[in-house]
Amino acid sequence: MGSPLSFARVPATDGRSAPLCRAYDARALALDDAGLRDYVRQQTRDTPLSHHSRSYAYPYAMLASWHDAVGVDIERLQPHDLAFATTICTPRELIEVRLAAHEGDEGVLLSHLWSCKEALAKALGDALRYEPSRLEVIDLLAVGHLGRWIGGSVDVDDRYCAWLCWSDRNELSSTEKLDQ
């Protein structure tokens, strides 16, 4: 990210519309962590969209804006141990993590799982209300949708992973609309 603002490449949506997702680089803006947070909060005023989600992993920040529920999260890729995995993963996700461990990729998978869970929890409304080990996102990671939720990874930097999740009630089937 050479400029202070870029429009992050949003995951493929099979022709459906997707949220506006912006990535900010504090180094290009000459901002410290607190300054970056203030700057990004101010940016939510510049869009007519009604729902916003922000995430920070200094020196980066992400801002997603949409007409419906949206969540975004950015995390630095780092090694994670099995204790972290058992804290955040569902039993099905733990199987995938153990398989990835045989290939030495469990840290990357766990970072993506955590980021996806954070983005989905934000989109659901209150990230602190959701127990990560009860939010199963392995299908969201694999195929880009989970029920009414759409999501995918957003390109930022090779040392970071970012996830965007959103709902588009216009895309629900008539059966799903009845369940609302």
CATH fold-level assignment = Ribosomal Protein L22, Chain A
> Helix share of residues?
25-40%
Q: Identify the CATH architecture.
A: Alpha-Beta Complex
Biggest sheet record = 4 strands, antiparallel
**Spatial arrangement of strands, main beta sheet:** 1-2-4-3
Number of domains: 1
* Broad structural category: alpha+beta
Structural overview:
- The structure is a single chain.
- This protein has helices at 26-29, 33-43, 82-88, 91-102, 106-124, 138-143, 174-178, and strands at residues 5-7, 20-25, 51-57, 60-66, 70-76, 145-146, 149-154, 160-167.
- The chain is of the alpha+beta class.
- The protein has one domain (5-178): Ribosomal Protein L22, Chain A (Alpha-Beta Complex), CATH 3.90.470.
- The strands form two sheets. A four-stranded antiparallel sheet has the order 1-2-4-3. Strands 5-8-7-6 form a four-stranded antiparallel sheet.
- A hairpin with a 5-residue loop joins β7 (149-154) and β8 (160-167).
- It is globular, with a radius of gyration of 16 Å.
